[in-house]
Amino acid sequence: MLSDLSHYPVMVNEVVSFLKPKDNNIYLDGTFGQGGYSKIILESSKCKVLAVDRDNESEYYAEKIKKKYGSRFFFIKDKLSNLEVLLKKRKINSLDGIVLDLGISNTQLNNPVRGFSFSNDGPLDMRMDSENIKLTAEIIINEYDEKELSNIFFYYGEERNSKRIAKSIVSYRKKHKINSTKILSDIISKINNNKFKHPATRVFQALRIFINEELNELEKILELSLKILNKNSRIVVVAFHSLEDRIIKNFFKKNSVLQINSLNNSNQYCDLKIITKKPVIPTKDEVKINPRSKSAKLRVAEKQ
Ligand SMILES: C[S@@+](CC[C@H](N)C(=O)[O-])C[C@H]1O[C@@H](n2cnc3c(N)ncnc32)[C@H](O)[C@@H]1O
To answer: Looking at residue 199, which CATH number applies to its domain?
Structure first.
């Protein structure tokens, strides 16, 4: 078992073997975290890595990597939906590969102050970037109406008891403020009873996705990848829940069908070739060492 404080990158060998980094090429690690993917990409060839993460804490890990790899590595603290502008500013017109490891890291999850965890008591926060995101879980839980709450739990957490949980939250908050992860988790646990998952898993996931607009961010970077990837370059994405995985699967599918060039009917093309017909999942050994990897699904497509 790994320490709760470190982030162990998921399917790191699989990521590199699909990406196939080459000398002098430039790759985007769009969800840098502690830099597990960036490090292995930089080690596997004399390429460059542009790393992006919206979380302040990543800057600390990025500095360490910068010291070792110098000008081959550069880090930008920002969100992926700003990438097009960021690339333009740096006069980068195209990339030779993209890796994305979605969601949050162990470090974010297990730090109670960040409010992502139902297992450690902390403030109801859940922002990946507290400088630029104003909406917290506490605001949502205490101020949104019952219908809005149940919609968030249902659409972003696929929570079957969304209506009952929303009702219970609204009733509780009439008497007391809900201002900690423990209070929220206890309210949900009185309604949900799941043998395999913590009862609050889906509601916490829903709040996190909603606050950080994670699905919108994913859609934007997928769309941009069609514009910025060089021919025969790959996008490798690791997802941890079905909402994300569905978006990736459908995006790859939609862009891998033959299209007719409207200017020239005979000229048929498709934007992507799907490399992984089925998602790649971690080995049993990896799941044993790193239980967080259990729900991971890796998909790869190649720009045509
Ligand atoms: C699962 S962790 C990645 C861990 C990383 N592969 C490693 O080895 O340490 C996901 C990271 O992506 C960042 N992130 C998620 N969505 C983002 C977005 N839209 N823009 C920028 N960073 C994002 C999170 O802050 C988090 O640090």
So the answer is: 1.10.150.170
65 Cα–ligand 1 center, Å: 16
Is ligand 1 within 6 A of the CB of residue 34?
Answer: yes
Number of domains in the chain: 2
CA-32 nearest atom, ligand 1: 5
| pLDDT tens-digit readout, 222-242 | 999 999 999 999 999 999 999
Is pTM, for the whole model, over 0.85? yes
Question: Which residue range(s) make up the domain with 189?
Answer: 134-211
Q: Nearest 5°: phi and psi at 50? A: -100, 120
3-state secondary structure 28-52: EECCCCCCHHHHHHHHHCCCEEEEE
Atom 24 in ligand 1: residue holding the nearest Cα? 104
Question: Is the residue at 251 inside a domain?
Answer: yes
